[in-house]
């Protein structure tokens, strides 16, 4: 019984990934172009999100600064979810909704990219970070689900929206991490040339 339930989750995740391959290949490629353009012009990537998406922001930044699958010089990326002193000071002195936007205001430069993750598209601190990124003339790569929520409404035409066609947070997160890995792979390919995995 339990095994069936577990298998069901695998099937649901795999089905969604098949569906998303068609739908998301274009916006993921657009995100890669935006990030490669930013990095080659001397810019950097900032990443944010809550809960599981906070882990994804850190995971993504680690693959930039350290490496993904190939040796290359580190790429400029900072996760806005890691500094507990900043998070507690801003959360305590201002409001939790400002924990990311304050960092975007302090660190963001025109031409930088903000990777903003929210499965609901409705987390106030992620929405405020997107607004701060626009004020700083940054491009936003938004990873969402559930139709994109309020975040979708905030996006500019030059931004990129990777919206997973599902309602469950866990399933959406599983496609987000796959999308981030696709981006790492494609960015390395753009910077270093093709390499097979065979
Ligand atoms: O990982 C999970 C659920 O799978 C949770 O930690 C989840 O990320 C948290 O509830 C977040 O606060 C949800 O925020 P969001 O994705 O709607 O912006
Ligand atoms: Zn989770």
UniProtKB/TrEMBL annotation:
Note: The reaction produces a racemic mixture of D-glycero-alpha-D-manno-heptose 7-phosphate and D-glycero-beta-D-manno-heptose 7-phosphate.
Reaction(s) catalysed by this chain's protein: 2 D-sedoheptulose 7-phosphate = D-glycero-alpha-D-manno-heptose 7-phosphate + D-glycero-beta-D-manno-heptose 7-phosphate
This protein's record includes keyword Transmembrane helix: no
Gene Ontology molecular function: any one: isomerase activity
Residue ranges annotated for the SIS domain, each copy included: 35-197
Family: Belongs to the SIS family. GmhA subfamily.
The keyword Protein transport is assigned to this record: no
Cofactors that this protein relies on: Zn(2+)
Major localisation: cytoplasm
Complex formation: Homotetramer.
Pathway the protein takes part in: Carbohydrate biosynthesis; D-glycero-D-manno-heptose 7-phosphate biosynthesis; D-glycero-alpha-D-manno-heptose 7-phosphate and D-glycero-beta-D-manno-heptose 7-phosphate from sedoheptulose 7-phosphate: step 1/1
Name of the protein in its database record: Phosphoheptose isomerase
Function comment: Catalyzes the isomerization of sedoheptulose 7-phosphate in D-glycero-D-manno-heptose 7-phosphate.
Cell compartments where the protein resides: Cytoplasm
Keywords from the UniProt entry: Carbohydrate metabolism, Cytoplasm, Isomerase, Metal-binding, Zinc
Cofactor note: Binds 1 zinc ion per subunit.
EC number: 5.3.1.28
Amino acids binding substrate: 50-52, 63, 92-93, 118-120, 123, 173
Residues annotated as binding Zn(2+): 59, 63, 173, 181
Database matches in Gene3D superfamilies: Glucose-6-phosphate isomerase like protein, domain 1
HAMAP family given in the database record: GmhA
